[in-house]
UniProtKB/TrEMBL annotation:
Gene3D superfamilies: Winged helix-like DNA-binding domain superfamily/Winged helix DNA-binding domain. NCBIfam families: SufR_cyano. This is Iron-sulfur cluster biosynthesis transcriptional regulator SufR.
Length: 218
C-alpha cells in the first residue's frame, strides 16, 4: 500500500482526523509542521488507500476548499480488541437463543466488567480515579483522554471532568447490539460510584468521538 511509504506523517494525519473529526489540508500542515505540498501528497495516498474521504465546501467566489475525514476503513485502522469473531459469535447466539437472551448475557458480562473497573480504579481523589479509568480504557484499545473543567464563578465548587474516546474498540458490536453503549455508561457509574455520568457525544450518532461528563454527586 502507498501509505506505508511515509508511515509516521500519515499516521499523524489519521490520528489528528480521528481526534478532531475533520480538517483541511492547510490546517493539517499547520498542526503537524509539514509543508502543504507534502500534506497534499499524503492525503492523496490515504484517499487512494480508502482510509480518508473528503467533501468540498464553498467559501466565497473562489475555488472550493476540501475538508478531510476518516472513512469507515480509516476508523477500522485503529486498534480493536473485539474482532469479527466476537461479533460473529454474538450473531450466532442471537440466532440460537434470541436477541433478548443475548441482551441478558451482555448485561451480565458488562456487570462483571464494571466490578473489575471499580476494583482497579480504587480509591483516591476523583482526578486520580478518572486518570486510572482512562488508562484502563487505553489498554483496551480506546484512544481515550480526560480533561478537568474548572468551575466558573463558583468558589469552592467541585471540579468536573470530561472523558473523550476517539476510537471505539467495540464499534462493530455496537452497530449490531446498540445496548452495549448503555452498558458502557453504566460501567463508568459503577467505577465512580460517588459521581453522576452523562453522555455528551456519541460515535453511534455520527459524531467523531464518545464523550462523558463526570460530576460529583451533590
Amino acid at each position: 500500500m502507498t501509505s506505508l511509504q511515509h508511515p509516521s506523517t500519515k499516521e499523524d494525519i489519521l490520528r489528528y482526523l480521528l481526534k478532531q473529526g475533520e480538517a483541511t489540508a492547510q490546517v493539517l500542515a499547520d498542526q503537524l509542521g509539514v509543508s502543504s505540498q507534502a500534506i497534499r501528497r499524503h492525503l492523496k495516498d490515504l484517499e487512494l488507500d480508502g482510509l480518508i474521504e473528503h467533501r468540498a465546501i464553498q467559501e466565497g467566489m473562489g475555488r472550493p476548499n476540501y475538508v478531510y475525514q476518516l472513512s469507515r476503513k480509516g476508523r477500522d485502522h485503529f486498534p480493536d480488541q473485539y474482532d469479527e469473531f466476537a461479533l460473529s459469535l454474538l450473531d450466532t447466539l442471537a440466532e440460537t437463543v434470541g436477541q433478548e437472551q443475548v441482551g441478558t448475557i451482555l448485561r451480565k458480562q458488562w456487570t462483571r466488567k464494571a466490578k473489575d473497573y471499580r476494583q482497579q480504579v480504587g480509591s483516591g481523589s476523583l482526578e486520580e480515579r478518572v486518570s486510572r479509568l482512562v488508562e484502563l480504557r487505553k489498554n483496551e484499545g480506546y484512544m481515550a483522554e480526560w480533561h478537568r473543567l474548572e468551575p466558573e464563578d463558583q468558589p469552592g465548587a467541585s471540579p468536573r471532568f470530561v472523558i473523550a474516546e476517539y476510537n471505539c474498540a467495540i464499534s462493530h458490536i455496537a452497530e449490531s447490539f446498540p445496548t452495549v453503549c448503555g452498558h458502557e455508561l453504566e460501567m463508568f457509574e459503577v467505577a465512580l460510584p460517588d459521581c453522576s455520568v452523562t453522555r455528551t457525544h456519541w460515535l453511534a450518532n455520527g459524531e467523531h468521538r464518545c464523550g462523558y461528563m463526570i460530576e460529583p454527586k451533590q
